[in-house]
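Lab manual, section 2.4: Encoding a predicted structure.

Procedure: take the sequence of the chain (295 residues), apply the prediction step described in section 2.3, and record the output as structure tokens. A sample record is shown.
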Amino acid sequence: LGAAGQLSLGSLFVRLTLDSAQFTKGWMNAEETMVGGTAAMTKAVAGMTLAAGAALTAVGVLGVREAAKFEQSFAQVRRTVEATENQFALMAGQFRQLAKEIPVDVNTINKTAAAAGALGIPTKDIVEFTKVMTDMGATTNMSAEQAAKSMGRIANIMGNAGDEFGRMGSAVLKLGVSTAATESEITSMGMRLAGAGKVMGMTTPQVLGLAAALSSVGVRAEVGGTMMAQVMEIMARAAEEGGDALLGLSQIAGVTMAEFSRTIKTDATGAIVQFFEGLKAIDKEGGNVFRALDN
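Recorded output:
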């Protein structure tokens, strides 16, 4: 890793061991929320639906000025999404309906859909993705467009599509409530970890759980997330190639090379936990964590 890498990883280790309870809590919550579907998101949005409907009823049908604004914002959708005129007409109607269900301006919904198109979300998934991101914009500390950009990148890397978007949104929402991390911190960290997580064979909930766990103990995505991704990539490469890298990792984890290689390949999250528990044991026994990393 080099001197700078050892220092950064050592600092990351200190962060994780100082508040291991938060780290574990964030890690364990995501799988449950992804399996549980969109319940958390649906519940969060449901309380706002009645008020939104009442407000729109008072305003009435869109006037000429509002219609012009709609066409202007929808033009951004046309620029980034490949669709037929019939598909665009259907999208426009669905976005207007969505604005009646969620207290969000329809032009904001159009911008979110345009961002989805720019990220390469398939045309058939644009409406569902836009709905989930609009929900997130209404219920988290992110705007819908911010949510679309970060979640879209994670989805593209991890290969998520269709109804998985709703489960991803619910997972981030629940993690934001149940850990010390905010939703924007989780998704920002998730973007840093997704590529390495994919290489290690991790699932989307595992990546989000790790992102929440790291963010919960104050690890910043820009530095800590990048460093963790490097550790994960080293692990994945070591499991395939063996050699000194695998030897050093397995010694820190306190298991044989064969055992740690197998754990990396079959239980990536368990391998990461095992690695940091090994560092913690070295520190507890009076050993030098930085020397262990150097070796």
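Check your result against the sample. Confidence is low (pLDDT under 50) at residues 37-42, 44-62.
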